Amino acid sequence: MFTSAGVTHVAFLLLLLLTVLTDGALCKKVCSYQDVLDHLNLTVDSPVFRLTRPVLDYTRPTVVKLDVILFAILAVVEKTQTFIPFLWASMMWKNERISWDPAQFCGITHISVPKNMLWMPDLFIYEMVERDGSAHNPYIYVSHDGMITSEEDLRVVSTCKMDVHKFPFDTQTCNLSVSSAIHSVDEIMLLPYSNSSRATQFSREVMRSQGDWEFLHLSISGTNFTFNDREWEQIIYTFTMKRRPLLHVVNFLLPIMFFLILDLASFFISDHRGEKLSFKVTVMLAISVLLLILNDILPSMSNKTPLIATYCIVIFALMLFSLLETILVTYIMEKDSHNKTEPVKADHCHKEDKVLACCSCICKVSSGEKQQELVAEEVNNRVQSGESNVLLSILEELKELQKSLDLHLGCRQAGGKFTLWASRINRAFFAFYVFTVSLFLPLIYMEWNK
Questions:
Q1: Model-level pTM?
Q2: Which of 135-139, 184-188, 381-385 has the lowest mean pLDDT?
Q3: 374-390: string of b/e by CB count within 10 Å (b at 16+)?
Q4: What is the 3-state secondary structure (H, E, C) of 219-239?
Q5: Of 255, 196, 212, 225, nearest in space to 70 by CA
Q6: Residue ranges of the alpha helices (H) in 252-348?
Q7: Looking at residue 24, what is its pLDDT?
Q8: Domain that holds residue 168
Q9: How many helices (H) and strands (E) does the chain have?
Q10: Is residue 22 part of a domain?
Q11: Inside any domain, residue 334
């Protein structure tokens, strides 16, 4: 049995325990980000955090870790040699004046503050030629151990030295060199956060658009250089990309090949008319239009002559020689036709031409000795049917016309030597044309695939 004193003691203990539990529930601590800022004395007007490099000992450099991921290839302009990528960039560095215990602030490990409240590394891209006009992230992350993280989406307009020798089957490499503007290596050390393989993998995973290009690789390297007796450090990001050539092949290379085939086929057009000459001139004009389009695509300055320019020039030259050859052959044949109007063997050819003009249809029948024999056989058969006298007279006339035809052919051969020369020139140039095209096209193809 409990005494009255024992009961009183137990009741007091229960009341004390209830009071402690109630006070603990009612006095739970509530924290805010502002409490952290007040603890750090970090305000917009505090110059200690943003005026100087955030180190307690000035001899220690600030280590800045940089990470760059490629989101998209917006444009690669060969004419102006401009590379325009869309990037995600992240910087990390330590502010030695900032630290707090998360346990004292309800487990808060990081806060976000405006960028103008803290010092930031003065990094810039050497190749950038135009200020980025896209929207920027106005905040940075501040961790409890003093690590500062800044993330940005950048649209970079940069210069890029391009090699268009193998256009449109070329592969381009463009560099973005990042360095500090005024801090040497003794003050800021730049380190890449990701290696080349990791940056390439991340870029391929987040790639949104590549346009006419296929992203191949992103390599990261660091280098130091000396300027004004001070050593500077920079990180070089090299973007390797390959052009997708299908559009240029369909719109440019194949049409020129088709025009070349048409020019080869024009050798089967008769030289006696003017259609062949006008056809070749039309093909030349079409090639000229394509060359104007090529002039707008390729840059004005290049270390090597582009193979596509060699391809066009050689084909254009072949078509030009083909046109000149057609003009020469036409001139020779016209000269031959003028010579045919002059009397050759005047005592015989003129008289026989009149006879041939009157009996042209019979000459076609009596053009060979075999036809004469057929006619003679038919005459013999007709003799038996009572028409011998008429048919024998026709046979005599055919013999006379055969003699006249032989004489006329002799006259044409005497005046057709220029036509013979034109035919020989035509055949020789066609063989040269086919040989040159068969040799040039495989060579230019192998050069493109090196």
A1: 0.72
A2: 381-385
A3: ebeeebeeeeeeeeeee
A4: EEEEEEEEECCEEEEEEEEEE
A5: 196
A6: 254-265, 275-297, 307-341
A7: 45
A8: 34-244
A9: 12, 12
A10: no
A11: yes
